[in-house]
Amino acid sequence: MAAAARLFLRGAHTKLSISSVSTVPQRHFGPALLKLSPSCDPHTQTQCRHAAHFTFQPDLVPTQYGPTQKMNLFQSITSALDNTLSSDPTAVIFGEDVAFGGVFRCTVGLRDKYGKDRVFNTPLCEQGIVGFGIGVAVAGATAIAEIQFADYIYPAFDQIVNEAAKYRYRSGNLFDCGTLTIRAPWGCVGHGSLYHSQSPEAFFAHCPGIKVVVPRSPVQAKGLLLSCIADKNPCIFFEPKILYRAAVEQVPTEAFTIPLSQAEVVEEGSDVTLIAWGTQVHVMKEVAQMAQEKLGVSCEVIDLRTILPWDVETVCKSVVKTGRLLISHEAPITGGFAAEISSTVQEECFLNLEAPISRVCGYDTPFPHIFEPFYIPDKWKCFEGIKKMINY
Amino acid sequence: MAAVSTFSNMNKMYRACFHASRQAAALKASRLLNNRTFRVNSTHRQQPFDSTLEKPQFPGASAEFVDQLEFIEPNVIAGIPVYRVMDRQGNIINPSQDPQLSKETVLNFYHKMTLLNTMDRILYESQRQGRISFYMTNYGEEGTHIGSAAALEPNDMVFGQYREAGVLMYRGFSLDSFMAQCYANADDLGKGRQMPVHYGSRDLNFVTISSPLATQIPQAVGAAYAIKRENINRAVICYFGEGAASEGDAHAGFNFSATLECPLIFFCRNNGYAISTPTNEQYRGDGIAARGPGYGMLSIRVDGNDVFAVYNATKEARRRAVAENQPFLIEAMTYRIGHHSTSDDSSAYRSVDEVNYWDKQDHPISRLRHYMASRGWWSEDDERAWRKQSRQTVMEVFERAEKRLKPNPELLFTDVYEEMTPALTKQRESLFRHVQQYKEHYPLDLYDKDSH
Where would I find the Transketolase-like pyrimidine-binding domain in this sequence (chain A) (predicted)? Predict the structure, then answer.
């Protein structure tokens, strides 16, 4: 039945299929390279391309923000948006297909709860969505714009880079669009191919005036999204779409914030620093475990969380301690954000480095469809990177 | 189960499309009836689906079937008339259209149009002498600026392109502020960060100009939407040229404003040229006004050199935009008498005779002067005295601005973000250390020591 439903969805609407096929129940998969979704019939293995290259690892249940509820990542986004609409009467949420709940279900129920003038569809036009959002923010209201996939954000590039990012500066602080937040599903999803898989954060990291944030889990997503919405600068919030359903945690129901521009040391270690953001943090955590078990190497795992402006201090402090740095992201290696981290760390920690900084990233190709298992910087490639650094 | 719920979602989406088309049809009807009886908020109305009717049921259009193959001619909308109040000699053509403005108001119009003209001449010359880096004149378009600005309320928000200095002047932006911006001196409200003519004023609700064309159009729509939700008597006006109307952002803005029902006036200054590109290489339809119906938007074409026509059209569009929460498109036909900017020489692409015609025979300033003279409100002596006085005022302000120091270099780093980031703090300190070390190579004397 589930398989039939999926097939129907594929035929009906490509974008919708992404949301439903990316359903990866939270489960520990063990060490094999390719994993089948439990919903796949073992007899049709050759038909099922559903591979999970990571294992989502929930954090400890947060206790400091009040009562929690079990939520996956899209539900935690909905919860953050719900908190915002309820506390800020100027807040509006808009984008393609958001009115009925969004193709990834992040805005489910919000239109009915808060009204058609606050949660609404726009015409299918990304430059319009961002331009409109800037205007809403300039007029003093809170604008939460959704771009349906990060891969489709480029028509809005001019509005983001030339307009949103420069509004405050060019007006001498007379006008700003600091209440604008742009949300977009981001990153690989197992079958997203060229145009449903991209991680475009590096394009925006070259643009002073905006903030770029990527969460790794439902709790982080809610706290960081609420920070982006409250922040007085325009923010781009990239949501790892593979985690929408795969990642489940106990998430506080009330509003809470996690500070921007602060990286988090998610695992302490002494020999190698591993930096990632979004889904890749979970790959890194598994790699740290493998390095400990197979090599006896102790890894410190850092979730950068905010790509721009990024937390140089936490990263450098760690590298001073470990002397080795591996950075990993899904986006192509050339000109990726790992390059920026690498050159800053080289400047700041030159004498502390025991080995060349290692970047394990996507290849300089478009994001490939059927070759995704070979393209992504999976745990084996990262593991090999650590081995090389240790043996340098 | 998943399949069922998704199907129902898709069905909802199709229904939403269906409404958009119904709405467009309703708009057409409303124009005929000159009211909004037929206008229904799409999000509030569900058109019942009735498969028994022998008419097209496509969600994206509402019309009848035909059995003759016929393409719609592109000139279905063509020859949109140009609304005017005065003829070229300043005579009121139809008394019912006379806005009946007081002598004081009309004199104010004239003072602002000519002061703008004088300021343009002096700043244009100053660029030619190398005293400022760049300038753009407003010659020939003064009527579009003053006529539209006068029809608005002071708290209406303005999103401009870059050739609307008259709108800002009408709102009360001082000559000192204009000059400070063009000189990028320490009094520039924009803190010396932008090229000349990129004005902005929070107090006057005039959003700071940016160079990229048409980006302001969808932004104006967003601002109008936020203002609509405040439910107050306020509107947004968005200026752009006929060249900018070719940008994707223009399409985005038109379409969003109509579907999201925003109290907004799109004011297109069709001045004949986008730098050197003439209108016949810019579009094939009947100008910009012809696009309105395609978006389900009310539109009008006016004589932009007739300040009263511009005033009347903008006033009525503003009234209805606020009352009915819908956008209006005004295409003001005018002529850019000056070069595009100080970086342009228009003799390379248009004849002097053409320019002279507009300068000497169909100029918004002379038309208004004829009108004033016929009322006995303005004499040759008044003209001479005012020209002398306005020139002197502009020159005084100009000299003050030129002497003023440039803003403190510290302002290079502020306002990138609301707060200073660690990286920027570090870069600022590094610059200051460097400049201390290499003082003689940097023009520190020209810059203010205080940061305001």
Answer: 71-246
Active site residue B396: no
Q: Distances from the Cα of A89 to the Cαs of A114, A233, B322, in angstroms?
A: 9, 19, 21
Same fold, A68-252 and A264-390: yes
Strands A119-121 and A143-146, by their bridges, are: unpaired
Minimum CA–CA partner of B199 in chain A: A171
* Domain residue spans of chain A: 68-252, 264-390
Which residue of chain A comes nearest to B255, CA vs CA?
A123
Q: Which of B283, B300, B310, B215 is nearest to B253 (CA)?
A: B215
Contact, A348 vs A314, CB < 8 A?
Answer: no
Interface check A347 vs B, CB under 8 A: no
Lowest mean pLDDT among B10-24, B282-296, B325-339, B413-427: B10-24
- The domains of chain B, with CATH numbers, are 2-70 (no CATH), 95-403 (3.40.50.970), 409-446 (no CATH)
Q: A48 pLDDT exceeds 70?
A: no
Please state which architecture CATH assigns to domain A264-390: 3-Layer(aba) Sandwich (3.40)
The C-alpha atoms of residue B306 and residue B332 are separated, in whole angstroms, by 9
Class of the domain covering A68-252: alpha beta
Q: What is the least distance, in Å, from the CA of B250 to any CA of chain A?
A: 9
- On whether any CB of chain A is under 8 Å from the CB of B452, the answer is no
Could you tell me if A170 lies within 8 Å of chain B, comparing CB atoms? yes
Question: Is the CB of residue B301 less than 8 Å from the CB of residue B333?
Answer: yes
A154: closest CA of chain B, how far (Å): 13
B340 is catalytic: yes
Instruction: Choose from B6, B14, B205 for mutation: most chain A CBs within 10 A.
Output: B6
